[in-house]
Design a protein that fits this description.
about 950 residues, alpha/beta, four-stranded parallel sheet, four-stranded mixed sheet, elongated
């Protein structure tokens, strides 16, 4: 141990003994801090401690690189991300390096997809190191941290527990963030203590006030020693044995093992190297730490069989803040501090040639390297000196206040010069109350919210957001065309005929006239596929549709691919073309363990709409038949019925080139007919099976009956299934009656009689609405019952008492809206044919069911006129009368003069009329109207 820091060590021990009584941990901690700094500086391989997205670290890195000019830079970053670094030239920062895996091998399937991101901003030390290494000939950059595969290999639990908060703009999604130099105290009590006594609200504000600003202009030795001291403090306050500390120590063993391996292979001198890592890792005391030959190595396990894909995705200040738990606006403040530090120091930062969003500057040769002098104690003077003035000077603060008021007025605030003065005075007041010589950007934000926003936000931006915009805004990065994966490039190339700038972060409107410009049909097909694959509003149709069997003539699209680059890039991880990814997703959807026959039919429909691949459609259809045969419930029966109906209608329409049903579709109808006949009795009796599901089963059986019988099914199977059914509950009972009516076992007159008996029974009246709901669902399998359902609903509204009717009406409306929206038009059309069309007709209108009963009464009470009119009608049309009699089972010969022993013509006609009315009420009503004149 060197004697450089011995005076400081002794000074801290004397202070600890003065302020503590007896043995305590404080002397050990204070002496340990100095020992850690001394130990880190004694390492022959220079360790450069950094904090992620720290302008002070970036400025110190730029200065040190120009002085030392190392030949090898070891950087704490996932080693498998190295090939991506050269692609940063084609991007506009900030962007994030990403490793992505969707097909897992060696990890639980529930973990997928796996994603690791490492954001890079210009105001970061690692970007300065990357730019220096890539732009300086003869310099090698080596990434030494764990690979993405090892990140998850060493995760003790599911990686979701390791994730940070998801960003609001979803640029990083649910990826695991890799942060260089995560300097935060591990004790929650310590963090609260620092925030309280520092008079700040967030850790980012404390770090900016007490670490960033004092170190922005510090020399290299001061910066290195102070940053190492801070890292040592947080490390010594971390409880031993925690999972986080064990993970950090494993990373340190991994990195030092990689460093020693590279030193041995390359033969480079340690004095010509620089190791860039987080300040927390700079004071590592694990046995594997150090570049000395003979230091024990970590036994690194091989990677799993998981295939990792790599790329760049756009990032933003807000995404970085949300993912790494920073205060909103802190990264924007760091960017402003970086620019301010560059202007004050005159330092020229390192930038990649061709970097978007930066000025093009001629590459100049670096000056000769400065020889490194022996380390001296800079901590003693730094800790004893008063705090340096930081924050905003008067001129800068006044400019911010004026600019903020101008920006606030443009966003709807009633701000004036008086508000600018108030923000200025309040900022100074807050800084004074918090013990600061000058206001900081955080003081300015608080003052602006207090003086301008008050309690009302007139627009979509609050004042805190306006302050961020004033500091440079939420800077959003962009991945250039050359750095995109092949699929994303293919998308841009194929949409190029639209003549739109798809890289712009604005919504672009695309108008496609397929009649005037048939060459744009390829763009249209691609947009429909992208809309299916990409979430959100990246591609959104405004006009046009592509339902099964339909093709639009004119289309209008809103394209926002510039702000959804991440989703398009991650889509490129799944395949080379959009069509390949779509085909893979459809296959994966039907092969999922939770897939149902309805899901498979939906996949078939999507393949027919979006892909021209009959082979794929047949494959998905065969899978639908397999899933249907394996199902033991009927929960998806409504979806199955609706989708197979649409598919059959499409296959039988002129839009289908084949003009006939494919083989899988015929197999599906046969399997479905047998499947639902088998499950029908159980579904009627099962309490958990809903009425809608049973109605959908009957709808499948009755609507597909003709096709099923032509394919070899037997109707006896359906008849036996209905006969064996014992319905549970009023609604299913109504469905059961409707099924018997469809099979010819129950006439409409019997249905009407059942309903009248129910309404006449006081014990059944409270449950009559359930019968009505069952009849409404019966329109699915038996649509010709629509007149009877309208009649039943009308009788229910007329006869049910208010305590029963009023609570039922909301339930009926909700049921029709949610479960049976397709039945509402059927009821509406039938009601329109039944009820009068004008208000004047309502007073003299009589319901058809009441009118029929009235006619029958007239025939019974007045036999003579009716008999006379009936006799004239029968005499005028004897052949018609004989035909009707034969149909009724009363064949014979017509005689104009009845025999003496023949029954009275009037009574015979009335008897026939009664029988005809019971079996054919509509025809009887028409005949009775003619007879009655």
């Amino acid at each position: 141990m060197s004697q450089v820091f011995e005076p400081l060590r002794q000074q801290l021990l004397d202070a600890a003994s003065t302020f503590t009584d007896g043995p305590a941990a404080l002397p050990e901690i204070l002496a340990g801090l100095v020992d850690d700094v001394d130990h880190s500086l004694a390492e022959p391989l220079e360790i450069f401690p950094v904090c992620h997205h720290s302008p002070a670290s970036a400025l110190a890195m730029g200065r040190r690189l120009r002085e030392k000019q190392p030949k090898v830079i070891y950087l704490e970053l996932c080693e498998d991300l190295q090939p991506l670094l050269t692609e940063l030239r084609n991007c506009r920062l900030p962007v994030a390096l990403q490793a992505f895996a969707s097909e897992l091998e060696g990890f639980p399937a529930t973990w997928g997809p796996l994603s690791v991101v490492a954001p890079v901003t210009e105001a970061s030390a690692e970007y300065q190191a990357i730019a220096y290494a890539l732009e300086t000939p003869g310099v090698e950059l080596v990434l030494v941290d764990r690979s993405a595969d090892h990140v998850f290999q060493w995760a003790p639990d599911e990686p979701a527990e390791e994730e940070r908060e998801e960003p609001e703009d979803d640029l990083h999604g649910d990826a695991v963030g890799v942060e260089i130099g995560d300097l935060r105290p591990r004790f929650a009590e310590l963090e609260q203590h620092l925030l309280h006594h520092g008079r700040v609200r967030h850790w980012s504000e404390w770090w900016d006030q007490y670490v960033e600003q004092p170190l922005v202009g510090a020399d290299h030795d001061t910066y290195r020693q102070v940053m190492t001291l801070v890292g040592s403090l947080f490390r010594r306050l971390t409880p031993a044995g925690t999972r986080r500390l064990e993970s950090d120590e494993e990373r340190e063993r991994f990195m030092w093992t990689r460093i020693r391996s590279h030193l041995a292979q390359s033969g480079v001198e340690r004095e010509d190297c620089l190791y860039v890592c987080g300040a927390f890792h700079a004071v590592s005391r694990v046995a594997e730490a150090g570049s000395q030959p003979g230091t024990p190595d970590l036994k690194i396990t091989p990677r799993s069989g998981t295939t990792w894909l790599y790329g760049l995705i756009p990032s933003s200040h807000s995404a970085i803040e949300a993912q790494f738990g920073l205060a909103p606006g802190s990264v924007s403040i760091a960017a402003a501090t970086w620019e301010k530090g560059l202007n004050r120091s005159g330092l020229k930062p390192f930038r990649l040639q061709g970097q978007k969003g930066t000025r093009r500057r001629a590459t100049k040769a670096l000056p000769p390297a400065v020889a490194q002098e022996p380390a001296t104690d800079r901590l003693t003077d730094y800790l004893a000196a008063p705090a340096a003035l930081g924050g905003l000077d008067d001129e800068e603060l006044r400019g911010w206040c004026v600019d903020l008021v101008r920006l606030a007025r443009r966003n709807g605030y009633l701000a004036s010069t008086a508000d600018a003065i108030a923000v200025y005075e309040t900022s100074v007041l807050l800084a004074s109350m918090r013990g600061r010589a000058r206001p900081t950007p955080y003081d300015f934000q608080d003052a602006a919210v207090t003086c301008i926003e008050k309690d009302v936000v007139p627009g979509r931006r609050d004042v805190r957001r306006l302050c961020e915009i004033l500091l440079g805004g939420d800077k959003v990065g962009q991945v250039g065309y050359e750095a995109l994966p092949p699929l994303a490039k293919d998308v841009h190339d194929r949409l190029d005929p639209l003549g739109l700038d798809l890289q712009a972060r604005k919504i672009r409107r695309a108008l496609i006239d397929l009649v005037a410009n048939p060459e744009l049909a390829g763009c249209s097909r691609l947009l429909w596929r992208l809309q299916y694959l990409l979430p959100g509003h990246a591609v959104r149709t405004v006009m046009g549709s592509r339902r099964l069997g339909e093709k639009s003539v004119q289309e209008s699209w809103d394209l926002d691919l510039g702000r959804h680059q991440r989703t398009l890039i991650e889509l490129g991880y799944e395949g080379v073309t959009v069509e390949q990814v779509l085909e893979q997703r459809l296959r994966r959807a039907v092969r999922d363990p939770k897939a149902t026959s309805a899901d498979a039919l939906d996949a078939v429909e999507d393949s027919l709409r979006l892909l021209d691949s009959p082979r794929l459609s047949d494959e998905l259809g065969i899978r639908a038949v397999e899933l249907l045969a394996a199902e033991r419930t009927v929960d998806d029966a409504p979806l199955v019925l609706a989708r197979i109906r649409r598919l059959i209608a499409y296959f039988e329409s002129p839009a289908h080139p084949g003009g006939s049903l494919p083989g899988w579709c015929e197999q599906f109808v046969k399997a479905g007919y047998a499947h639902y006949c088998t499950l029908l009795p159980m579904s009627f009796a099962d309490e958990e099976t809903g009425v809608r599901q049973v109605a959908a089963m009957l709808g499948f059986l009755f609507s597909m009956e003709g096709l099923a019988l032509s394919l070899g099914c037997e109707r006896t199977q359906l008849e036996l299934a209905v006969q064996q059914s014992v319905p549970h509950g009023p609604a299913k009972t109504a469905l059961f009656w409707a099924a018997r009516h469809q099979l010819g076992d129950l006439a409409v007159g019997d249905l009407r009689r059942h309903c009248d008996e129910l309404l006449a029974n006081p014990l059944v009246v409270p449950s009559f609405p359930q019968y009505v709901s069952g009849f409404v669902h019966a329109l699915e399998p038996v649509p010709r019952l629509a007149p009877f359902v309208v009649e039943t609903l009308s009788k229910a509204f007329a006869r049910l008492p208010d305590p029963v009717l009023l609570p039922w009406l909301p339930t009926l409306i909700t049921t029709l809206k949610q479960d049976s929206p397709e039945l509402v038009p059927v009821l509406t059309r039938e009601a329109g044919r039944t009820f009068p069309g004008t208000l004047s007709e309502l007073d003299t209108w009589t319901a058809p069911w009441n009118r029929s009963a009235q006619k029958t009464t007239v025939l019974t009470q007045q036999p003579a006129p009716v008999a006379s009119a009936a006799r004239r009608l029968l005499d005028a049309h004897p052949f018609t009368a004989l035909g009707v009699a034969a149909l009724l089972g009363r064949p014979g010969e017509w005689s104009a003069t009845p025999a003496a022993d023949a029954p009275e013509p009037a009574s015979a006609a009335i008897g026939l009329a009664k029988k005809l009315r019971e079996t054919h009420p509509e025809s009887t009503n028409a005949m009775a109207s003619l007879i009655g004149g």
